[in-house]
Design a protein that fits this description.
The structure holds 2 protein chains of 2 kinds. Helices cover about 35% and strands about 15% of the residues of chain A. By secondary structure, chain A is an alpha/beta fold. In chain A, the strands form 3 sheets. In chain A, strands 1-7-6-5-4-2-3 form a 7-stranded mixed β-sheet, with helices on both faces. In chain A, strands 10-11-13-12 form a 4-stranded antiparallel β-sheet. Chain A has a two-stranded antiparallel ribbon with strand order 8-9. In chain A, helix 5 runs parallel beside helix 12 and helix 6 (about 140-155) crosses helix 7 (about 170-180). Chain A is globular and about 85 Å long. The model of chain A has no long low-confidence stretch (mean pLDDT about 95). Chain B has helices at about 5, 20, 35-40, 65-80, 100-105, 110, 125-140, 155-170, 190-195, 215-220, 245-255, 275, 285-290, 345-385, 410-415, 420-425, 455-475, 475-480, 495, 505-515; strands at about 145, 180-185, 200-205, 225-230, 255-260, 280-285, 305, 320, 325-330, 405, 435, 445. Chain B is globular and about 80 Å long. The model of chain B has no long low-confidence stretch (mean pLDDT about 95). At the A-B interface, helix 1, helix 2, helix 3, helix 4 and helix 5 of A face helix 3, helix 4, helix 5, helix 6 and helix 7 of B.
């Protein structure tokens, strides 16, 4: 380079001194062991270097090519969703001491990260009512993949894993990727297309000595609250299988926590806990389990444990623990290959959950329950619409069926009117007719919902009639 | 107490857990309550959720006000060592400086607040960024196509070995037969773990006396069962596998594929490319090479590049550029391995990597690699001259981005181990190198200074190593009892892992206290 780049502090003078000190002619000689035929002669077809101002301009230009959904006009969910992020959350989680550190291998100088992750584990264990939560997986989808593999390790030689028929299709695809190579067969249990609930007879007929685990979603992908958790718990455990529950953490101020209906493994998407949607990543895979040390040893991912200093005066401190389960020690016998996880998102969730408090969690759960049910009710009052099209007791998301038009047309019609109207369900499931999955959170006040319903009505009268 | 030691003193606060600071009635934030009109319209909450599905008991999470929470986490942050504070020569992790502008770009509202299921017509900027980044990473690694979906290097590895399986299933039709993945004994632990996760048997190759792949052992191991070889080049010793041409030919001739572990890519940008060396698949750790922050252990990003013959197997969706130059998502790849992430990967990390590449450009990336190698060699040559330290394997071969120093001699002479040295370094305000890896070197200290350390900072580090050596030979207990100036003294890891004292949450802590298992 003609001049020093701001990120690169070694000067021409430094280079000379350093080369002299190590007895090398030039930097090129340090690459002399690369066989000549592999030395790159051409210049790579990459951008030229840019000043910070130019970087800023380019990235701002790209960002502004995206249409940012206006508050209250975005009803997209299906895996990640928009919530208000309290200002303190990014201000604390984005402190460079957290952001630019690595895995806390040196506990003595990393107590900040370690204690924060211990608080994360503790907060979620309490909300989920489960014994242990690990210090994060990549996202809910891969957490499910890991859960299926964990179940199959615990229940040796049981090759089948049951999932609900209408589960999140993206999570299903990832699950299959994780299961296929472990020789785990993923099999669907029927759900009633009207009530959205699991068909218990079908579950019972599929449960046998071959099933390692049964996965349920609560609320389900279609937003339906699964009412039969106690029966499911009995059936699954009577068959000697594990119950794996996928939940929404923000629903648990109102809805029974998975530990309460005896789930063995719990997974969730942690993005709603203070992280922006960010085009779908980075997310946060929440992963917890119940049971003793034997089960915990089958758990993938990192764990932070409380301990004390080795010598007097004894002080309480935190370290990474049960490390021998991990890939850098057990290598091909490790519980999982996970190494880098989503620690910073876990820090974010810890700060968010600290702000939440028990009453805040209850309020969030209730507000989302009220707002989403209100939206469904108002939509249902329109001609040619059924909402919720699946189930009766819903939370945050619900299916909306259109009798006289296609979901794609509604989607486009709403988009023209500045509304991101929901995810098209007919792409994944044909059973529900022309339908959208609509997501309503605390960000949608009565006025936003009324406007949304009115826009849908206008569209239906203008375009369809 | 030496001069250097006095300079560093980590902040220390007495920070109880939030659970212990809880005061009933305090709130941290006003979360919205349901609007009266909506409640009036819908009735009581029992109308929405049946009583039997309602939570009976509120979770016992802390009740704390905002100012206390702000202080709590600020104090914790001050008790956490990071790249913004000092030298972090943690080998193989490539702890380079994280440019501030990258974070600002990632938090631009047009990136942070867009939903992955927005209509693609409203996410053209995001798609363009990802499409362009794919091209750049392909060019840098010499690959024909790239997926950005894997959320970390290890997930990239899993993706890569699944691609190998799929290739043998669909192309060679020898999937059942090709059940083995070869990895050198010096490989990162994720390699064997990823191969096993994908259902392969792992065959370990011994290293030669030079610290390189033993080509004779490779020839003995490779055969009709070989699905592929996973290799990093330069390897974990920091040396370039100069026989890569022969290695590639050996594996390819037997019908296997060659997988490149990109953890060490920082050493060769613009100098050579995995694709040119014969690799078929490569993963790149953007949090290492492209300076995206490690975040205390994540989020990372582990894009995977492949040669043409493997493109059809990449995860869906693929980003495509249409005839009118607009961008879209294509799910129509029937031979794809499926998905490894719920959406498109760690997008926020991809934005940071894009900013970094755009800032440095072709010349800057090449210069970064050259300086990373210069810095590593400078450390290697200076430290091997310090009493008690040796540079194992070939003395002549230059190191690349990192060097592995053995403290075996020092251990024999003084009883001071690599771990002790790592802990003592903390007293000088330098993070410890990676210790005891790779496992083929006794008392290994794996040092990766990166290109973003100045000569002055390298000299400070080397001086600290010299001081520690002196101490080890004169007052070894001082080194063995380190660290001294950090917030905490040595922590009891055995106690943390023991079944009787294992405590992974506040709940477990309370249970333990109530059972009288702990003296606290």
């Amino acid at each position: 380079m003609k001049r020093n780049h701001p990120y690169l502090p070694i000067t021409v003078e430094n280079k000379k001194e350093m080369l002299e000190s190590i007895g090398a002619k030039n930097i090129g000689s340090l690459f002399s062991d690369i066989p000549e035929k592999f030395r790159l002669e051409k210049k790579l077809d990459l951008p030229t270097s840019h000043t910070e101002e130019e970087v800023n301009r380019r990235l701002t230009a790209l960002a502004s090519k995206n249409v940012e959904p206006t508050d209250g006009k975005n009803f997209l969910g299906a895996g990640v969703d928009m919530h208000y992020i309290p200002a303190a959350v990014p201000a604390l989680a984005n402190r460079s001491e957290f952001v630019t550190s690595y895995t806390s291998y040196q506990a003595e100088i990393s107590q900040g990260m370690l204690q924060t992750l211990f608080e994360y584990q503790s907060l979620l264990a309490e909300i989920l009512q489960i014994d242990v939560v690990n210090s994060s997986m990549y996202d809910m989808a891969s957490a499910l993949g890991e859960a299926a593999r964990m179940a199959s390790r615990i229940k040796r030689k049981r090759p089948r894993f049951l999932v609900p028929q209408y589960m999140n299709p993206n999570h299903l695809t990832v699950l299959e990727t994780y299961c296929e190579s472990a020789d785990i067969e993923v099999e669907k249990v029927k759900q009633d297309p009207r009530s959205g609930l699991l068909i218990l007879d079908d579950l019972e007929s599929k449960l046998d000595d071959d099933v390692s685990g049964v996965y349920i979603e609560n609320p389900s992908y279609l937003g339906v609250i699964e009412e039969q958790v106690d029966q499911i718990n009995r059936l699954v455990h009577d068959a000697g299988s594990l119950l794996i529950a996928g939940v929404d953490v923000l629903s648990l101020g109102l809805i029974r926590p998975p530990g309460d209906y005896d789930a063995d493994i719990v997974i969730a998407e942690g993005q709603p806990l203070g992280s922006p949607v960010s085009c779908g990543g980075p997310l946060l895979g929440i992963f917890g389990c119940k049971g003793g040390t034997r089960v915990i040893r089958q758990m993938p991912g990192r764990l932070v444990g409380l301990t004390q200093t080795k010598e007097e005066p004894y002080e309480r401190g935190y370290v990474l623990t049960l490390v021998p389960r991990e890939q850098h020690i057990r290598r091909e016998k490790a519980t999982s290959n996970i190494c880098s996880n989503q620690a910073l998102m876990a820090v974010t969730a810890a700060v968010y959950l600290s702000l939440l408090t028990p009453s805040g969690l209850e309020q969030m759960s209730k507000t989302i329950a009220y707002n989403s049910n209100y939206a469904a009710k108002k939509l249902n009052e329109l001609d040619g619409i059924v909402a919720p099209a699946v189930g009766s007791s819903i939370w945050k998301e619900f299916a909306v069926r259109f009798e006289d038009t296609t979901a794609q047309d509604v989607h486009e019609g709403l988009l023209e009117r500045g509304i991101h109207g929901g995810t098209i369900l007919s792409d994944s499931f044909l059973d529900f007719g022309e339908s959208l999955l609509v997501c309503v959170t605390e960000l949608h006040g009565k006025q936003d919902i009324d406007e949304f319903v009115q826009t849908v009505e206008e569209y239906l009268t203008e375009e369809v009639a | 107490m030496t001069k250097d030691e006095r300079r560093y003193r980590q902040a220390k606060w007495d920070v109880p857990l939030l659970f212990e600071k809880s005061t009933p009635g305090q709130v941290g934030h006003w979360f919205p309550a349901p609007e009266d009109e909506i409640v009036k319209e819908l009735g009581s909450v029992d109308e929405l959720v049946s009583q039997k599905m309602q939570r009976k008991k509120r979770p016992e999470i802390p009740e704390i006000s905002e100012p206390q929470i702000v202080r709590h986490f600020t104090r914790l942050s001050q008790m956490n060592y990071s790249v913004t504070q000092g030298t972090y020569p943690l080998g193989s992790c490539t702890m380079k400086y994280n440019p501030v502008i990258n974070n600002r770009c990632a938090s631009l509202s047009g990136f942070a607040n867009i939903h992955p299921f927005q209509d693609t017509s409203t996410a053209q900027g995001a798609l363009e960024l990802m499409w362009e980044l794919e091209k750049w990473l392909g060019e840098l690694s010499g690959m024909d196509a790239v997926t950005l979906q894997p959320a970390a290097g290890a997930q990239g590895e899993l993706t890569g070995v699944l691609l190998i399986r799929e290739y043998h299933r669909c192309v060679t039709e020898e999937c059942e037969q090709r059940s083995e993945i070869l990895t050198p004994d010096s490989a990162h632990g994720t390699n064997p773990a990823s191969a096993a996760m994908a259902g392969f048997d792992v065959v370990v190759l011994p290293s030669s006396d030079e610290g390189l792949v033993d080509t004779d052992a490779l020839k003995d191991a490779v055969g009709p069962k070989t699905a592929g070889l996973m290799l990093t080049n330069p390897n974990t010793i920091g040396m370039f596998e100069k026989d890569i041409n022969e290695i590639a030919a050996t594996v390819h001739d037997e019908g296997g594929l060659l997988y490149y572990d990109g953890a060490n890519l920082n050493a060769i940008m613009g100098m050579t490319r995995p694709g040119d060396m014969g690799f078929d698949i490569v993963h790149m750790n953007l949090h290492k090479t492209m300076s995206t922050p490690h975040g205390g252990g994540g989020p990372g990003a582990g894009p995977v590049g492949v040669k043409d013959k493997l493109t059809e197997f990449l995860p869906i969706p693929r980003i495509v550029r249409k005839a009118d130059d607009s961008f879209d998502l294509d799910y129509d790849y029937p031979n794809s391995i499926g998905k490894v992430h719920g959406f498109f990967g760690n997008f926020g990390v991809l934005v940071r990597a894009y900013s970094y590449i755009y800032a440095l450009g072709a010349d800057g990336l090449k210069e970064a690699s050259k300086l990373a190698v210069l810095n590593a060699n400078y450390c290697a040559r200076r430290i091997e001259q310090i009493k008690g330290f040796n540079l194992p394997y070939s003395q002549e071969a230059p190191r690349k981005h990192e060097c592995v120093i053995s403290a075996q001699q020092m251990k024999e002479d003084t009883g001071v181990t690599a771990m002790h040295i790592g802990k003592r370094l903390l007293d000088f305000g330098v993070h410890a190198p990676t210790v005891y890896f790779p496992q083929i070197v006794d008392e290994a200290l794996m040092i990766e200074p990166t290109e973003t350390e100045s000569k002055e900072e390298l000299d400070t580090f080397i001086d600290a190593m010299e001081t520690i050596s002196k101490e080890a030979y004169e007052t070894p207990e001082k080194v063995k009892n380190a660290p001294h100036s950090t917030a905490f003294r040595k922590l009891d890891e055995y106690r943390a892992a023991h079944p009787r004292t294992l405590t992974l949450s506040w709940r477990m802590f309370q249970e333990r206290l109530s059972e009288g298992k702990d003296e606290e």
